[in-house]
């Protein structure tokens, strides 16, 4: 097992020191160069990006964190005492182990089965191990392990060769074989992958919970990783397990989980051998309005979980029992490519199942569990709001905003990493950037997969499924997914663009100017008061309304239009003085008395007013005077 190291082993000090220095240098540069106006309380974009949405997302995460601590510090210790007491006097009637492996290296096979057989022998319960294998050499390895352990008398091993079409068919075949033995209510089944190594005492410290609570249908344990890869890969796996521990602990408080991990989970054998349970494992499918009916390739852990959830059986997470998985990226030299490939499969399994689970409703599973499933769907969109707004504001409004956003990312992810570290009992500086990568990159992947979740692949076995066999039908499905995805993303982007002020609906002034420039309108029949009056309210307080060059007519309805406004914010109306054709304002005789020159002269037929840049002319309204600049004002004649 050369190259494999435990994911929670120490990252090289050089890596940690480098990450720490990069973080410190980034903060120093940003804080010394950060313009003070970035944190202006008037910045609605800033409040939207890291205020409202951030408060919602992180308050929900903190609820999960508090529940996790509550479960681990208060609730579970009491459960542990009771389970240990039961374990002294009671044991399961029988134990069945389903271990599926596909092309696992012999040295890993030996380590996995050696640990399993040692623990089963110590547990002293009649046990039947079904080894679903892919190669004849696997039998030699397992026989060697049995010989090394003196062929324990309480263990029987049976072999079954997999078809290579995923492990669902192998699991169903084994479950049918177990069902023929008619297991009792206190007979238990362990379902585990062939690359999972259990620790001594795993069985006695976990299976006793079934004897403690007769309504418990399944449980799963804590995980560690034995990684063949570099520091970043090792920390990526350990961070995922730290996040898993927090969420699993929180959910276990409600006696429900969000998944029964296929890596290692235990079930009541009578439930796992129910015909409906076996059929769901083997033939689980989705009947979708766009994709039609397609079978699941992987995600058996989601199928078993859904069956128990639907039938209202309790589930439990055991945080103080660890199993270790031998982890290796599909391509060790391509971290991002490999992690994206893995997350596509994981998220696809989640999205293919969560919709029907949500449809069960909060009454059937409890509100917190139900809302957690709903939140999985919402979070893939809300997570993208922060970075999207940051890009928009940085590009179109305030370039310095990107510095504030980077500080926000470092601050929030450091807090999250610290909370995870308190429960994981270790911390790595690499967790901070990896958290951001998992959250934002994961959200992008989830939104992508949600419109294409029929497409499935399994890298280890090199198989794929879900799309129609007809190339034209598959192409139509893909094009449909692209179009709907673009529509959703475009809708979200449009809302955010409008919200942060990058793009606003055109005001009446802009519409009128556009029409005049195109020659669609010379002068409105009722005059220009209908759009000039609202323009006085469109601008910011103390701003100015700009009139394009040419003639504009203030008709007698001006003050009626102003009276309709909530407030007049403009302090001036300014004409176009950039060309030889100046702005001319024609005023109806009915309102001519409201216009005055710099020395109080009134407007009349023989006395036009010339208004310069300094606001020599005034328009008197009920809400105060408005300066008139860069224009000639004439009394309108009917002829």
Question: Could you give the topology of this structure?
Answer:
Elements: E1 4-6, H1 13-33, H2 44-89, E2 95-100, H3 106-123, E3 127-133, H4 136-148, E4 155-161, H5 168-179, E5 188-193, E6 196-198, H6 202-206, H7 208-212, E7 216-228, H8 231-252, E8 264-268, H9 269-272, H10 275-283, E9 285-288, E10 292-295, H11 300-310, E11 314-327, H12 335-358, H13 362-365, H14 367-397, H15 401-424, H16 431-450, E12 456-458, E13 463-465, H17 471-500, H18 508-517, H19 529-538, E14 544-546, E15 550-554, H20 558-563, E16 572-574, E17 583-587, E18 595-596, E19 609-611, E20 617-621, E21 624-629, E22 631-635
Parallel strand pairs: 2-3, 2-5, 3-4, 7-11, 14-16, 15-17, 16-21, 17-22
Antiparallel strand pairs: 1-7, 5-8, 6-11, 7-8, 9-10, 12-13, 18-20, 19-22, 20-21
Helix pairs in contact: 1-15, 2-8, 2-14, 2-15, 3-4, 5-10, 8-15, 10-11, 11-12, 12-14, 12-16, 14-16, 14-17, 15-16
Structure in words:
The protein has 20 helices and 22 strands. The strands form five sheets. Strands 1, 2, 3, 4, 5, 6, 7, 8 and 11 form a nine-stranded mixed β-sheet that branches. A five-stranded mixed β-sheet has the order 14-16-21-20-18, with helices on one face. Helix 1 (13-33) runs antiparallel to helix 15 (401-424), helix 2 (44-89) runs antiparallel to helix 14 (367-397) and helix 5 runs antiparallel to helix 10 (275-283). It is elongated and about 120 Å long.
């Amino acid at each position: 097992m050369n190259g494999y190291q435990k994911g929670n082993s120490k990252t090289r000090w050089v890596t940690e020191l480098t990450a720490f220095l990069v973080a410190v240098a980034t903060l120093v540069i940003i804080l010394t160069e950060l313009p003070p106006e970035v944190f202006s309380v008037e910045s609605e974009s800033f409040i939207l990006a890291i205020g409202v949405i951030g408060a919602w997302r992180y308050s929900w995460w903190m609820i999960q964190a508090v529940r996790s601590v509550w479960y681990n510090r208060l609730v579970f210790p009491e459960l542990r005492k009771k389970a240990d007491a039961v374990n002294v006097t009671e044991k399961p009637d029988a134990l069945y182990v389903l271990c599926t492996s596909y092309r696992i290296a012999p040295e890993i096979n030996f380590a996995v089965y050696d640990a399993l057989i040692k623990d089963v022998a110590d547990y002293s319960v009649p046990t039947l191990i079904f080894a679903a294998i892919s190669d004849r050499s696997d039998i030699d390895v397992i026989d060697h392990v049995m010989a090394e352990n003196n062929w324990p008398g309480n263990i029987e091993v049976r072999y079954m060769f997999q078809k290579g079409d995923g492990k669902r068919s192998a699991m169903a075949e084994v479950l049918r074989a177990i069902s023929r033995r008619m297991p009792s209510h206190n007979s238990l089944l362990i379902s585990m992958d062939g690359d999972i190594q259990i620790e001594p005492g795993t069985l006695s410290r976990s299976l006793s919970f079934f004897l403690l609570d007769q309504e418990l249908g399944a449980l799963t344990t804590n995980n560690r990783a034995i990684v063949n890869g570099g520091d970043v890969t090792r920390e990526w796996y350990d961070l995922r397990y730290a996040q898993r521990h927090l969420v699993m602990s929180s959910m276990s408080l409600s006696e429900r989980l969000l998944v029964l991990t296929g890596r290692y989970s235990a079930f009541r054998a009578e439930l796992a051998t129910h015909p409906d349970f076996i059929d769901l494992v083997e033939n689980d499918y989705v009947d979708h309005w766009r994709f039609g009916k397609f079978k699941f390739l992987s995600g058996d852990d989601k199928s078993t979980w859904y069956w128990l959830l639907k039938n209202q059986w309790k589930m439990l997470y055991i945080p103080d029992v660890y199993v270790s998985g031998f982890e290796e990226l599909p391509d060790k030299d391509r971290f991002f490519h490999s992690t994206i490939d893995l997350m596509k499969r994981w998220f696809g399994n989640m999205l293919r199942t969560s919709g029907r689970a949500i449809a069960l409703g909060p009454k059937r599973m409890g509100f917190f569990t139900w809302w957690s499933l709903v939140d999985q769907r919402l979070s893939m969109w809300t997570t993208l709001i922060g970075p999207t707004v940051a890009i928009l504001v940085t590009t179109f409004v305030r370039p310095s905003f990107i510095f504030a956003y980077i500080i926000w990312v470092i601050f929030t992810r450091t807090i999250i990493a610290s909370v995870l570290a308190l429960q994981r009992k270790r911390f790595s500086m690499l967790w901070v950037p990896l958290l951001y990568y998992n959250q934002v990159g994961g959200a992008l992947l989830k939104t992508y997969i949600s419109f294409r979740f029929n497409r499935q692949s399994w890298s280890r076995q090199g198989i794929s499924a879900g799309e129609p066999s007809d190339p034209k039908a598959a192409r139509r499905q893909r094009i449909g997914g692209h179009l709907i995805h673009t529509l959703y993303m475009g809708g979200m982007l449009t809302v955010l663009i409008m919200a942060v002020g990058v793009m606003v609906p055109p005001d009446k002034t802009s519409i009128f100017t556009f029409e005049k420039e195109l020659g669609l309108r010379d002068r409105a029949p009722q005059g220009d008061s209908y759009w000039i009056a609202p323009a006085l309210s469109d601008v910011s307080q103390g701003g100015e309304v700009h009139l394009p060059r040419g003639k504009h007519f203030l008709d007698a309805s001006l003050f009626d239009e102003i009276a309709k406004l909530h407030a007049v914010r403009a302090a001036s109306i300014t004409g176009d003085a950039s060309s030889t054709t100046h702005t001319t304002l024609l005023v109806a005789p009915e309102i001519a008395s409201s216009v005055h020159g710099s020395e109080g002269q009134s407007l009349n037929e023989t006395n036009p007013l010339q208004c310069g840049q300094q606001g020599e002319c005034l328009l008197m309204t009920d809400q105060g005077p408005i300066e008139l600049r860069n224009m000639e004002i004439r009394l309108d004649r009917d002829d």
